[in-house]
Structures are given as C-alpha cells and as structure tokens.
C-alpha cells in the first residue's frame, strides 16, 4: 500500500510539474517595468519616439522586442540574431540576449535559454548594467525546469529577498520555490511558500491560480500523509479548476482525485473521476487536433482560394481579351460585309441600267437602220434605173456627173446602213449565222451584179479567176457582206481605168479569195499586217469611217475565217479572205 | 424540158412585181400568187408547183410561217425576210426553210436562193454551179445559163455513159449526172427505161423504129442507139414483136 501510494504520488507529482511548466508557458508574455524601460532606452526607434513602442518599424532591434511582446517568438528571434551580429552597444546587446533567452524559455529550450541569459548577465556585469536582479526569477525558473533545484532555490530566494520583477509572476515564483523545496523534501519551507502563493492568488482572485495552488498544497499534504488536510485541498482545487477556463488543470485535478479516491479505496468515485479525466484528455486532444485541422483547413482553403482566384483572374482576363478580339473581328467583318453589300447593290443597279441602255440602243439602231434600208434602196434602184436608161451623151457633163454621183452616194449610203445593221446585230449577238456549202463563183457573181454601174463609170477592168468547183462553208449573208465591202473598197480606191482582180486558191481545207486593186494601197499598214482603219483615204479624198473593214473581220471570225491585208507589188492594196471548206 | 413552177406568198405589190419579172425572165413559171393565208391554202390545194417563195410577214403578222407549215413536207420553200434578227428567225427556223432571202435582193440572189432550195431538198450541195443535175421528186433539175430547168422523164431520149458518170440526152441537150449508170438505173422507174447496150439506157417511149437484125434502134429524133447481143434477149423479152 505504501508502495502504491508512493507510486501514485510519484505520478501525481510528475503531472503537477508538467502542468506547472505548461501553465507557465501559457501565461502572456510580459516584461517587468524596469526591463521595459531598458528596452526603450536601448532601442534606436523607441528612444527617439516612445509612441512607436507598439508599432512596426523597419529596424532589427525594434522588431526584435516588438515581435517578442506580440508573442511572435520566431520573428523576434530572427531579428534579435540579426541585430546581435551587427555589433551594437552593450546595453542593446544585453537587451537582445535577454530577449533571446526569454524566447528560448518560451520555446521550452531551457539549456539554450540559460546560455543566453548567462551571456546577458555577463554583459551586464561587465558593463555594470544594473538590472541583474530581474534575472533571478528567470534563472530560478530555468534551473527549476532543468531540475537543478538547489540552484533554482538559490536564485528564487535571491529574488524573494528583492521582490523585483513583474508582480504578475509573483505567485508563480512562490509556487516554483515551494515546489523546489518540496522536491528537496524541505516540507516546512515548501508549505510556507505555497501558502504565500495561495494567498496571492486569493488576493488577485485568480481562479486558475487558486486551482493550481490548491492542488499544490493538496499534494504537499498528501506527500506528508496528511490526507485529511490534503483531500479538502484536492476538492477545492477541483472546484476552482472547474470554474477556471483551463482544461489542463481540470484534467490534472480529476487525475489527482482519481488517485486519491483509489487509495482511499473508493473505486466507484475513483472510476468516475478517471472517466472525467479521460473525457477531458480526449476533448483536449480533440480540441487541439480540431484546432490544428481547422488551422490546416483554413490554410488550404486560403491557398486554394488564392489559386482559384488567380486562375479565375487569368481565365477572366483571357476571356476578356479573346472575346474583345472576336468582337472587334465581328465588328470589322460586319462592317466590310455591309460595305461590300452596298457596293454589290450599286453594281447590280448599274448593271441593270447598263443592260437597259444597251437594249434600248440596239433596238433603236435596229429600228432606224431597218426603216432606212428600204427607202434608201429604193432611191438607189431608181437612180440606177435612170442611169441605165438615160442617154448620158445627151446630157451635159455636169448633169451627167450629178446623176452618177447621186447614184454613187445612194449606193454608199445603202452600204453603210446595211453595214450598221449587221454590226448592231453582230455586237448584240443577235445575228443569225447559218453555215452551208456555197459555190463561191455564184456568190461572187451575184454580189458583182450590183457593181456594174460603178465598174462602167470608172471603166475598171475586172478579172475573175474562180474555179466553179470551189466550194466553201460559210453563212451566205456574211460572205456577201464581206465581198460587197471589199469590192466596194477596191473600186472606190481604184483610179480611172484601174484594174481589179478576184482570184481564188485552194489549199487543203482552206480557200483563199484574193481581191487586188492598183490603187494607192494601204497607208497605215504595219509589219504585222494590221491596219489603222480610220485613216485610209479614197481617191476622192474622203476618209472611210472604218466600220466596213471592222465588220468584215468580225464576220470572217464568226465563220471561222480571217482577213489579211497587204500591199501588192505594184503598190495597190490586196486583201485575202481565208475561209473553211469543211467544218 | 419544162419550166419550174413557183408559187408566191406575198402581199407587197412591189415585191410581187420584182419577183414575177425575174422569174419570167429566167423561164420560171409562176403557178400562183397568194396575198393572204386563205388564198394560200386554196392555192396549195388547186395548183401543182415545185417551189414556194414565202414572205414571213404578211400584213405585219408572221403568217408566212403558218403557211409554210401547210406545205407538204417534200416541197422546198424559200423565206423572204427583211431582217436577219435572231428574234425573228428563231421562230422562222421552226418551219425549217430550205433557204432565206433577205430583202432587198437582186435577181441573181433570187435565183441563187432557188438553187439552194432545190439543192438542200435533194441533199446535195453546190451542184448547180458545177453544171450537175439534181434528181428530185421524179424530175431532174439542171442549171441552164442563169436559170434552172426541170427535165421530165419523158423528155429524156436516152442515157449513156460518160467516164464514170452518165450523160442524159434530152431534146434540149445533154447533161451529166454525177452517178454511175448502174446507180442511175436503180433510181429510175424501169418501165420507161430499158438497157439496150452496156452503155445505153433507152427511153422506150421515144423509140421510133427498131432494126433487130442490125441491132439498131432509131429514136424519134433520128438518133441511133445500139443494141448489144447480151441485152438483146432481155430487151425483146419485154416486148412482143409483131413480125
């Protein structure tokens, strides 16, 4: 039984120690007033302007204490280390090493804490900085944590004698001192200090502190086997713990009571206390875990959110760029489309107008020439009749000439009208071309019939060499028009008593009809055999309008034939009509 | 030898006069002139003719085309028109004329149109210019000078050989046909014409006397035709000889 108690006591004690250490570290970071003053004096920022004490200023020293007081130990650490390497005044170094030490302590790295504090103390003693006493409590604590109780008691007694430092820490220090004595089994001293701690907590109405102190005292009595003193304190401690907002203390309380009841053999109570302890342990664990997970979740959520945000932002930007580009494109397209449509419409309208104009022109031409053709022909015929029947010798020269010239004029006019009619029909693709096999000689003969008067008047010697067997494939009207025009030209350009020949040659599938005269020949003929048809003059000095030859070329082409112009060896003109004999 | 008969479908007096004069000058016979559609129809029914000359526009209506449709299919006809406008022609062509004649025209143009019409009807081309005969509708047509004449079968005395072709001998003269004698014989109705000799195809209607022992035939123009032994039997088989 003693063994059990001792065993359980050992565990309880251990627990209490652990609880104390954790308890202390949860306390808010505060520094004593004197140390704070030291900081302000040493800090290059705060010494100039004290209002900057709690504000962020870009200065390593300043940030070191700024972050420490904000409980951002890691940052404080980094800046402190940075500042230390810079080589500052001893005051500043002292402050920094202290801060470092406190930082270490906060992080439960007690050995390192001691080292830093020791360094600070060394600097302080070297340079006669007077606040060494503020270290006592820290050192005491540090040694306590390292289980070096003698040294801890030494420093804590020192502190006690001076009572320096933060008032907030007093109850803790007494508590630590008490526990240290308890470890060395100096129970009287222990009781004294623990009571002191209890009193302070009572005065301060610190429920958590009271809970702790109660449990301390309870344990003290319990170790001395003063159960009846211990148990009330345990229960008190539990009550305080329940009211205090600290699950760890509560947990401890339950645990202690569970052991106590077990030792008292009240297993039922012990078990219930145990259950409570477990519950809290789980909830603490849960709470911690949940808090951890929640923190993690939040971090992940934030990062995802950020990512999403940036993605969305990118996407949105791209979308905006692309859509605006397309929009512009669309705008451009619709614009140009509208323009083209407009142009097309304009073109259509113009085309329609042009078509109508053309048709009107053709109709007009057709009607006019058609209606002119017959009367002119009649005049020509009648004049011819007069010319043939009158005895020219009975007339005076002037009248005779007048008569002939009138006939000639009517003949020319008729030819021109006929040419125009054919030209209009041809150019509007309304001319009928019906190819058939034609006996060349017969066609030449019938064309020549109309020229007898002119031949007679000019006394032109006509020679024809056409083989009656010569047959060609052509449209009758076309051939007549071509022959008529070319012969008319030949006679027109012949001098008095001139010579005109019509010859035909056959070569393979082609027939060539050559009409030659001994007039002035072509003047505008170039090497290629092309003619400027508007510039040739006839023997009377009149220029031709050129439509005749153009029409002949057109008609020849329509019949798969062609015309060739040249000047004969004697200077006269020579035109060759080349036609097909077979299709 | 007989004249080619032509009918005219025309209402313009000047044109009628011009055509009539030309035709008369060139030994054509005008079988009739119709100035309206109804006159035309009665003319077709009552008269015999070889060719028709049809003006497309009668009283400003294209009645000529309708009239042409009424002609029997083997009669050649010529369209008279004042315009070669396709719009006009596209209708005219439906009646499939043998040739066109554009007003105003001269005499030779008219005659040439008639030549072309007959040539086209008999599916020959450029024949008349070469002094060749055309056989069409049981008649022969041939160019004489500037005109055409028609040779009826009974006008033919006999047909003989000329190189690879045959020569037709008529009262008016001899004409060469562009086919061999044998081919000619296949086209001929054989009742009138008999082969007496390898080179002779005789129109028996024109025989005056026969001297069988001398192998001689005397025609009514006193020309003598030979009989060869080969054909003698065949020749006489056809006829009873009254001794």
What does this structure look like?
The complex is a heterodimer of chains A (583) and B (243). Chain A is 69% helix and 8% strand. Chain A has helices spanning 2-26, 33-42, 60-69, 73-85, 90-106, 110-126, 134-145, 149-162, 170-183, 187-204, 207-223, 227-243, 247-263, 267-389, 397-427, 440-448, 452-458, 476-492, 547-558, and strands at 435-439, 461-465, 471-475, 499-507, 510-517, 562-567, 573-580. In chain A, the strands form 2 sheets. A 5-stranded mixed β-sheet of chain A has the order 2-4-5-7-6. The model of chain A is unreliable at 21-27 (pLDDT under 50). Chain B is 28% helix and 33% strand. Chain B contains 7 helices and 16 strands. In chain B, helix 2 (37-46) packs parallel to helix 3 (63-70). Classes of the chains: A alpha+beta (583), B alpha/beta (243). The A-B interface holds A 366, 370, 373-374, 377, 381, 422, 425, 429-432, 434, 436-439, 441-443, 445-446, 449-450, 468-469, 471, 476-477 and B 82-87, 89, 100, 102-104, 106-109, 112, 115-116, 120, 125-126, 128-131.
